[in-house]
UniProtKB/TrEMBL annotation:
Hydrolase listed as a keyword: yes
Organism of provenance: Agrobacterium larrymoorei
Listed name of the protein: ATP-dependent endonuclease of OLD family
Residue ranges annotated for the Endonuclease GajA/Old nuclease/RecF-like AAA domain, each copy included: 1-44
Keyword annotations: Endonuclease, Hydrolase, Nuclease
Length: 660
């Protein structure tokens, strides 16, 4: 099963997070003190892993301003903290159908909740109990008379009560024994027992252990034997050193039991080679290093206990400087990254069931590019084995190839007409456009970084006006490709240039990168001279300067004019949730400003006269909404078909310029 949605209530700063969806790898973005840690810890308490225990405590965790009225607010019941929805796999659904019949399984999701003062979780399952009972009865080989005696009970309790009267019959007795053995003598509890092995435990990490660079091996071996190594926090760095040895393929018994130098040396060299290969796969900051594992006898003048017995050391050798240093003397970022890789490789190996990872601000000490390496490690090494939610406020930890997997965490405050500020608590938003600019900053940074990198790395680049143009073109292309028609060739990389005025300087800046660059611009009458000069400048190849006006019937046009007015109004109504008298249609749109044929200008004029709190129109918001609601472009309604036809003509023209 996989977590699909979560809603958190009544937990610290989170009065009600609102329901938000969860991807296989989900990034929580927000300012310091926004409530990201509270969100992760609330989820961790749903089913905590024994290695990272977490329990809800009413006095500590319930929002303090309401604590005195707890019973009053919840009618004497305990307050819910987390309500989660999980998507079942085909295999899990098949297990339920095999036990209770296909007609009894009414859906493919379950809801799991947890409350204050509860010792477990509450499950809501897609099981029709009456149909499940019918199926269980039908599998017993009853004759018509025997089945008639059982009747048609609608609950497990009724079935058991009836069978209690019929135990003289061996078939009735067998059915009684079957149902009586169900957990809590309940079909619903039996269904839960079938699914519980697939329900993950949550491991929450906020303090990330750092490995000790030097360990006294006899002491380490003794502590491992009496298990104090695993129960005392002061040995966490030593414990990680032991995992470090095992990660490389060595065990303490291998080291302490070796009796010849050649065998001993070969094992240490092999371990060093394994560790070097592994770390360099994900540490791109410095490829000129080697990890070296050494074991030597302690010297008399070394501090105790390192002055006698076998001492294990981790050292880093720099191939350029021909020098080695202790692991503990490396940068904080390197020691953190290395320790993290060792730790989570162990988590993966030790997992006896499904484990869901909750990572609070990982990689804080890392350089931006090292954070990108860490994100790649998440994707390649952790994600295949675990569903993950992590928090960050760094642009480099936002998955720029899947920004829509990010969720904005905000601590909201309402200001009334008297200027009084009232907190409404932490909320988790999927619609990043409704977040404040400080919270969304890491996403903007990630998008900008991604676009800049794409410009350097993409051999074929289309310069467009702004990010809204990119989203519109991506949405239209995706729908055309879904219909097996012509969309934008994936070799093209789109990059916002900021308008016609900036295209020439933009291309000049990257002229040495041997890029294949074309431009797609909005067009107004005042832009005619600029476009002609750009075409004559030869800085962009012949035929590579296009305008939207080339693909519509009007003289002046923006990217929005590819859309049929009826479809454009649908997008606006959906984006801004316009209803009733505010809902826009083509007639209202046209009447808003009859002095222009550009739909953007008409929309701007329309929104200026709408009453608050409706925001002013901007180019990016509707484009982002359309990306989040691709179903808007499905179907065969005339406005959709007209729009897609225009877009397809545009994409054919753009694709025709590829590599020319």
């Amino acid at each position: 099963m996989e977590l699909e949605t979560v809603r958190i209530k009544n937990f610290r700063s989170v009065e009600d997070s609102g329901e938000f969806t969860v991807e296989h790898l989900t990034c929580l973005v927000g300012k310091n003190e926004a409530g990201k840690t509270a969100v992760l810890q609330a989820i961790a308490g749903l089913n905590p892993h024994p290695a990272t225990p977490f329990e809800y405590e009413l006095e500590r965790d319930y929002p303090k301003r309401y604590l005195a009225r707890y019973s009053e607010r919840h009618g004497g019941d305990d307050a819910v903290v987390v309500r989660s929805v999980w998507k079942l796999t085909e295999e899990e659904i098949s297990d339920l159908k095999r036990e209770f019949g296909s007609k009894s399984v009414t859906g493919d999701t379950i809801t799991v909740s947890r409350f204050y003062n509860s010792h477990g979780t509450h499950w809501s399952l897609p099981i029709d109990e009456e149909k499940a009972i019918e199926f269980v009865i039908s599998q017993q080989g009853f004759s018509a008379a025997e089945k008639s005696q059982v009747g048609s009970p609608s609950t497990t309790g009724e079935l058991i009560a009836k069978l209690t009267e019929l135990t003289a019959n061996s078939k009735h007795k067998a059915l009684f024994d079957l149902v009586d053995a169900y957990p809590r003598k309940s079909i619903i509890s039996r269904a839960r027992a079938i699914l519980e092995p697939h329900f993950p435990q949550f491991m929450y990490f906020s303090n990330y252990d750092r490995m000790n660079a030097m360990v006294h091996l006899p002491s380490l071996n003794k502590r491992a034997a009496d298990e104090t190594l695993f129960s005392h926090d002061q040995y966490r760095g030593d414990r990680l050193f032991r995992e470090f040895l095992e990660y490389s393929g060595l065990t303490l018994s291998d080291i302490l039991g070796t009796t010849t130098f050649e065998s001993f040396n070969a094992k240490l060299q092999a371990a060093s080679n394994v560790l070097t290969e592994e770390i360099l796969e994900y540490w791109t900051q410095n490829q000129d290093i080697e990890i070296r594992v050494s074991v030597t006898e302690g010297l008399p003048d070394d501090p105790a206990p390192f002055n006698s017995g076998a001492v294990g050391r981790a050292r880093i050798y720099n191939l350029l400087h021909k020098a080695d240093t202790s692991f503990s003397e490396r940068s904080a970022g390197f020691t953190w990254f290395f320790s993290f890789l060792i730790k989570f490789d162990r988590v993966k190996k030790d997992a006896t069931g499904k484990v869901f990872l909750l990572l609070d601000e990982p990689g804080l000490t890392l350089h931006g590019l090292a954070q990108s390496d860490l994100l790649r490690y998440f994707t390649e090494k952790l994600e295949p084995h675990h569903q993950i939610i992590y928090s960050t406020h760094s642009p480099f930890m936002v998955p720029h190839d899947n920004i829509m997997a990010s969720r904005i965490v905000e601590d909201l405050v309402v200001v009334d007409e008297r200027g009084r500020r009232t907190p409404t608590g932490t909320m988790v938003r999927e619609d990043v456009l409704k977040a404040d600019k400080d919270s969304v900053f890491p996403l903007q940074g990630a998008l900008g970084y991604s676009l800049t990198q794409s410009l350097f790395l993409g051999k074929h680049t289309i310069l467009v006006e702004g990010p809204g143009d990119i989203l519109y073109l991506q949405a239209l292309s995706a729908e055309l490709l879904r219909r097996q028609r012509i969309g934008l060739n994936p070799k093209w990389v789109m990059c916002p240039a900021g308008g016609i005025d900036k295209i020439q300087s933009f291309v000049s800046l990257f002229a040495g990168n041997s890029l294949d660059v074309i431009a797609l611009s909005d067009y107004t009458k005042k832009d005619r001279t600029k476009l002609e000069n750009l075409r004559k400048s030869e800085i962009i190849k012949d035929g590579g300067v296009l305008s939207i006006a080339d693909f519509v019937t009007q003289e002046e046009a923006d990217i929005e004019d590819l859309f049929d007015p009826r479809l454009f109004c649908t997008v606006l109504n959906g984006t801004y949730e316009l209803k009733g008298g505010q809902e826009i249609d083509p007639d209202k749109l046209n009447a808003a400003d009859e002095n222009t044929e550009r739909q953007v200008k008409k929309a701007e004029a329309y929104f200026k006269v709408l009453a608050e709190p409706t925001p002013l129109y901007n180019h990016f918001t509707p484009a982002s909404w359309l990306m989040l609601h691709p179903e808007t472009l499905t179907g065969d309604a005339e406005p959709i078909l007209v729009t897609l036809e225009r877009a397809e003509i545009l994409f054919k023209a753009l694709n025709g310029l590829l590599g020319k």
